Amino acid sequence: MQYISTRGQVAPIGFIDAILMGLADDGGLLVPTHLPQLSQETLAAWQKLSYSELALEVFSLFIGDEIPREDLKKLVDDSYATFRDPAVTPVRKINDNLHVLELFHGPTFAFKDIALQFLGNLYSYVSGKTNSIIHILGATSGDTGASAIEGVRGKEGIRICILHPHGKVSKVQELQMTTIDDANVLNLAVEGTFDDCQRIIKELFADVEFKHHYHLRAINSINIARILAQTVYYFYAYFRLAEQGVTAKVNFSVPTGNFGDIFAGYLAQKMGLPINKLILATNENNILERFVREGIYQPGEFRGTHSPSMDIQVASNFERYLYYLCGEDASAVASIMAQFKNEGRIEIGADKLALVQADFDAYGVQNEECLDTISSYYGEYSYLLDPHTACGVAAGDRKSAEGEVTVALSTAHPAKFNEAIELRKIEQTYPEQIQALFNKQQKVTVVGGSNDDVKDELVKFF
After folding, report:
1. Which residue in 184, 380, 382, 400 has the fewest CB atoms around it within 10 Å?
2. The pLDDT of residue 67
């Protein structure tokens, strides 16, 4: 399997070169040259596999022989041995119409662990095999940072710097990042929003000379390995419903801000998984909902919400979807992204909007509706949703039709967002690992919101 840029100016490269490149050198995002097409026989065989076995099969399709199968198996097994539930991503039935895919059983209680435990081990493997320097630079709206740090902390040959918006992540998210004392970890709290952090990251990676001089590698979902890892749990969840005898059409409702998690479901569907409907759940920062409804992609006014990890206006993975929406025409994508850079707006025609609406449905959840959903499901089913999962459940309730079953992706443990939970007078007990964070000393540097402010810290660290 080889990888190319959505903007067409990067020669095809292999999987390892793709994960090391992160953001394509032409400013685009890397995608596989083709998507494997799965037969009914393959899907039936995969249904019998454990999570780690399934992940191995999916990764093998996209890695080929670049990593020997036994080495890849060890990487996968080591990555998911850190999860607290033997199923890795268990599926909980809430009622006849709703199942919740619990993605928070990894070390940092967030869905990002599923990709980043693997990517951390993969980077360590590549560093050891190629004697290469790995300097990881990433941005987080809350969960990616902790998961990325946990994946590589203390590992030889790897240093990691994570940017987060100062004062705009939950307290637990902040503590999970900033209480890590390993010498190979740097946390920068940027005075601004997550979109500012993400812009800085993309612009530093687009500075090819700086990127290569300091051996910068990507941990955000601009890295294609992140997306591939996330496709696995769509297959796994679908198979679990089939085992339970579910014969209705299956929807997935996905809380998303950066478009990565739902794009992974889109890839699984294009590979042959018979997903009925992909429901895109946003919060009041609803740029993606507006795109699905109206065909207009335009950042609006930033809104702080009870689901802060989704407080994003510019979705970094949106360009990957544009590539497929444009019929894999890289020149068309390059033209659209140039227009977006100049005008801050993308508007598609009616023909393409019809394709978007065939691929996705969408719903933007308001703050109070998010809290109402947490309250109602806790009261009726004694099941506590974190505010991001609540957005997914609310969107699923709104957009699923009679006779359909919805799987809502639960992206984080509710203990990570007690600020929202306690607004509805719900008390929860923190897991021991999270409770222990409040007694640890923090280690973080607050910086301004410019590229140069961040560059200065990186030069000192790397």
Report:
1. 382
2. 97
